[in-house]
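Proteins fold reproducibly. Look at a sample protein:
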Amino acid sequence: MKHSLLTAACGAALLLTGCNGASNAAQNGDASATATAAASSEPFVTTEVADFDEPWAMTFLPDGRLLVTEKEGKLKLLDIASKQVGEISGVPEVDYGGQGGFGDVLLHPKFAGNGIVYLSYAEKGSGDTRGGAVARAKLTLDNDGGGSLSDLKVIWRQVPKVSGRGHYGHRLAFDKDGKLWISSSERQKFDPAQDMKSNLGKMVRLNDDGSVPADNPFAEQGGVSAQVWSLGHRNILGLAFDAQGRLWAHEMGPKGGDELNLIERGANYGYPIVSNGDHYDGREIPDHDTRPEFNAPEVSWNPVISPAGFIIYSGRQFPDWQGDGFIGGLSSQSLVRIEFDGDKAREAQRFDMGERIREVEQGPDGAIWLLQDGGDAKLLKLTPPPKP
């Protein structure tokens, strides 16, 4: 039987009520780890700000407005003060269906000067194939609450394009050195995660123009291998750098075994050879502790949380949470708080949000922003409760 890390659910907790005392990762031979939950009172106030149709990602502009991708292929611009929602034209054509469509949106580190944004999306291939792609473009805003993209150029693609519409990943992040990181999931094809002739099931590191940095761990191999920083991943849907520059990423496991990993240079995280979950058809997958040559997760969840969206908080509105991670939960309908201790991590708290949470972002003022999943999804702003 699989070992499990059981993090207690909040049950019927109110929207503003958290669950304390979550569990640590089951790893390094631990048979199981469990935790009980104790309710805390009103850790934040939740305000509904706007509605979107199948939103997937968001990012704040320097002027405080918000870019939001909608899966079917729209890029929206929200003026938070006026609640006006405009649209950005010139977006790439997306292959919409299943888990595919518009993905992440990210500003260039020097956006204030160059206006460049990055977009990830599912792209149609030949026949019944498709794959994730990343493009960059110049964003120009107009005076009517919208704008347009120009000089759009695709700088990266998943290789090869395959059938199906699952497990694109395509989360984006920049590090402090201006390198672009892309999570490339294994498209529900399993074995490509271990195949260095493919960039599926990999963490990818590029220069901001899509070229390959000479210091990547597999650069000398050339081809798509040169793009790869780490391998053996399943479906990475959240990336965040901590204050020390370490990259953390969470990924959905198979039937059980969601993971939070510390991403290390050239490391292999084992999928599909090992996992703390099993295949959906019932076939067992050996646990991480049976193959110590593969990097094991710092936190593992079974039952799963279905993680989506991820920040490491650095704002001032919640000073007690500075340096903590926040992960959205889809099937768990939760917001999960992670505490870090150097290169170790543990779930510290879980908040029952009552809806699937697709995306998490930190606002310019230090508020925490969430996007619900699906149609008629709410944009939520979390702020501290009033002081007594």
In short: The CA atoms of residues 344 and 357 lie 25 Å apart. The chain has one domain: 48-383. DSSP finds one helix and 28 strands in the chain. The radius of gyration is 20 Å.
